[in-house]
Amino acid sequence: MPRYFFDIREDAIVIDVKGVDLPDRTAARDEALARGAAFAADPHKLGGEGVVVVTVRDGPERVVMCLRLVCQIEDVAD
What we know:
alpha+beta; DUF6894 domain-containing protein; elongated; DUF6894
């Protein structure tokens, strides 16, 4: 079973050094969505840019997918 690593970047980069064994890339995609959604659910974790990126690797350097979540709030005066 392949091992996937999920690095998270918002204001800083958190490198996943342990990874998780998953059956395929579809499962890795689902895990990336779950991790990105959990991270973005906390408004204090959304940095100044309001962007969270989950980079999925299947080895030390090989990136297989990126998930980018963007949260932008535009405060419009009346």
